[in-house]
Amino acid sequence: MTQKNIVEIENLSFGYGNRMLHKGINMVFPRGKVTAIMGGSGCGKTTILRLIGGQIKPKVGQVSVDGKIVHKQDRHGIYELRRKMGMLFQHGALFTDLSVFDNVAFPIREHTKLPESMIRDLVLMKLNAVGLRGAHKLMSTELSGGMARRVALARAIALDPDIIMYDEPFAGLDPISMAVICDLIRTLNDALGATSIIVTHDVEEAFSFADYIYFVADGVVAAEGTPKELSKSKLPFVHQFVHGEKDGPVPFHYNAPNYKKDIYESV
Amino acid sequence: MNPIFKILSNLGNQVTSRIWRLGSAARLFFLTLIYSGESFKRIHLTIREIYFTGVMSLIIIIVSAFFVGMVLGLQGYYTLQKYGSSESIGVLVALALLRELGPVVTALLFAGRAGTAITAEIGLMKATEQLSAMEMMAVSPIARIIGPRFWAGVISMPILASIFSMVGVMGGYLVAVPIIGVDHGAFWSQMNVNVDFRFDVVNGLIKSFVFGVACTIIALYEGFDAPPTAEGVSRATTRTVVTSSLTVLGLDFILTSFMIAH
Predict the structure, then answer these.
(1) Cα separation of A267 and B159, whole Å?
(2) Contact at 8 Å (CB) between A203 and A213?
(3) pLDDT of A60 higher than 80
(4) CB-based burial label for B207 (10 Å; 0-12, 13-18, 19+)
(5) Interface of chain B against chain A, CB under 8 Å?
(6) Does the distance separating the beta carbons of A107 and B137 come in below 8 Å?
(7) Mutate which: A70, A75, A98, A106, vs B, most B CBs within 10 A
(8) Range of the domain at A222
(9) In the structure, what pLDDT confidence band is assigned to residue A253 with cuts at 50, 70 and 90?
(10) ∠ CA A48-A198-A209 to the nearest 5 degrees?
C-alpha cells in the first residue's frame, strides 16, 4: 500500500557525543508536496537530511521512508531506499574529475544498463530542464557556483527520484541564480510528481514556494504550518526569524560566563 | 590534575587512538577486498588509476634507479677491488637491487609521489562532499574510489620495482664496464651464475607486492580518515609519507628475516 507520507520522522533524537542536536523531533513529509525545514545555523537541519538518507543513525526514535525504517535496513536495503532519493548538496558536490555530462550520466550509468545513445538523450533532457544543455562539455571546475548547483540538481533528478532533498540550495547565490533555483524546485517537484524536502534559512524564498514549513530550534520543532500561517504567527521565535530581528528569544551571544568576570579573570 | 596521572592519561589516549586507527585501517583493507568484485566490474577505473599511480611514477623511478645503480657500481668497485674481485661487481649490483634497494626505494618513492596524491585526492573528495554524494546515489565509494586505487597500487608496485632493478643494473653496468673498465663478459656471466631466480628475483617481487599493499592502503586510509579541512588534508598527506616509510622499512626487516631464515 502506498503511504500518504513518503517520509515520517518520529520522536527523533540525535547528537554527537554528549551534545544532543535533536531532542524528540516529529515531522511528516506528504507525497507530492514541497516541505521546508528552517532554523538557525547549526540547529541540525542538514543532519535531518543525512538521517533520512541513512548516512547516520538516530540515537532514539526513527525515520521511515516509504514505510521502511531507515536505520533498520542493511546496506542493500539502504541503497534500495537511496535509489528513490536525489540529493542536492550545499556546494553541489560535483565530481571534479568528470565533465558536466559525465556527472549527470554517473547515476544512470551506475544503476542502469541503458545504451550510451539513450543515456545521452536522458542527460541532455535533464540538463535542458536546468537550462544547461549547452554546458554539457564543460568540466565541473569551469562552472560558477550557481551553474554547479544546477548541474548537481540535474544529477539529483537523473533517475527521476520520488524524493528530492535540497541542502541549503540558495546559500551563496546571486539573486538571479537564486530565483532560477527557486523556480526549478517547484517546477521539478510538480513535473516529476516528486516530494521535495528543502533545508534552508532563506525565509523569503522558502515562503514563496513551500507548501509546509517546519521551524527547528533548540533540538525540537518550534513551529510548523503553511507559509501563510507562519507569516502571521505570534510565536516570538518565528517572529524574530521571519523578520530577521536581532533581539528576541534567539540570543546573539553564544553561551558564555559573566562578561565582567571573564575579563577580570583573564588579567 | 596530578602531573604523573596526566602523563599516563595522555599516553593511554595516544595508545588507544593508534590502536583504533590501526583497527579502522584493517577494516578498510578487508572492506576493499570484499568489494573487489564490484571494483573489477569497473576495470576501466583500475586501468586509469594504474596510469596515474604507475605510469606517471615511471620518470622518478627510472631516474632514481639509474643514479642508485651508478652509485652502487662506484661503491661496489671501490670495495671489491681491495679484495681483487672487481669482476663480481655485476653480482653485487644485481643482488643489492633485486633483494633490497629495488623494492624498498621504489616503495619509498611511490609513497612520496603516488601515495601523497592518493591521500590528498581522497581527502579533498571527502571535504567537498563528493564521497557523501556518491553514497547518497547508492554507489559505494569503497567499490568505486578505494578499490580501483588499491588494486592499481598493488599491481603497479612490483612492476615499478622490477623496472627499478633493471634500470639500476644498467646504471651499474655503465659505470663498471665502459667507465671503469671491468670486463663486459665477467660482469654479465658472474651475475648470471650467482643470481637465483627463486631466492633473489621472486623474493624481491614478494617484498614489493607486500610494500604495494601497505603503501596503498595507508595512503587510502589517511585520505578516507582525514578531517574535511585544509589542515586535516595536509596533515593526512604528511602522515602518509611518514607512516608508509616507517612501515616499509619495518616490513622489510621482517620479510628479510623470514627469507634469510628460509
Answers:
(1) 64
(2) no
(3) yes
(4) buried
(5) 125, 128-130, 132-133, 135-139, 144
(6) yes
(7) A106
(8) 1-84+162-176+187-267
(9) confident
(10) 155
Find the angle CA(A159)-CA(A161)-CA(A164) to the nearest 5 degrees: 125
Residues in chain A within 8 Å Cβ distance of B144: 110
Give the number of beta-carbon pairs within 8 Å between A and B: 44
Instruction: Enter the pTM of the model.
Output: 0.87
Q: Give the domain ranges of chain B.
A: 35-261
Least Cα distance to B216 among B240, B180, B189, B251 occurs for B240
The answer as to whether A250 is a domain residue is yes
Residues A158, A164: Cα–Cα separation, whole Å: 11
A116 shares a domain with A77: no
The answer to whether position A127 is within a domain reads yes
Pairwise CA distance, residues B229 & B220, whole Å = 17
Same domain, A150 and A219: no
Query: Is A90 within the bounds of a domain?
Result: no
- Chain A residues near any Cβ of chain B (below 8 Å): 53, 55, 78-80, 82-83, 85, 87, 89-91, 93-96, 106-107, 110-111, 152
Domain total of chain A: 2
In a domain, A194, yes or no: yes
Q: List CB contacts of B147: < 8 A, sequence separation 6 or more.
A: B32, B35, B36, B38, B39, B40, B46
Mean pLDDT value across residues A59-75: 91
Model confidence at A2: pLDDT above 70 = no
CA-wise closest residue to B146 among B250, B67, B218, B79 = B218
